[in-house]
Write the structure tokens for this entry.
Amino acid sequence: NTVMVLFQLALSAGAPWGSIANGGRFPGRLPKRLRLGALARAIVLAVLGLIVPIHAKIILPDFHYVSEIGIWIVVVVYSLSLANNLSTSNKLERAIWAPVVAILVACALLVAIL
């Protein structure tokens, strides 16, 4: 998840990696509105990324009650992201992000059910 957050932050800062994001529609630097979207995605991913270790009682044990529902939100969001990455016509984006997100789905699901 950290890699995805850093990637989104880099995109929002203007990194020329548009060919492996958003279906590759904007090779190079993303337009301003999509850079703002990348920043928003980075924030959402960071929050989602915190829910998993909270639910696993690795960090912030006092907030475990929040993660009871939150972990399932993480599983759903990551699953939708995986479906999106698997369905993109951008081969490079699919090759990079589908395996990463598949691992995140598996980890979140394991934490949710254990």
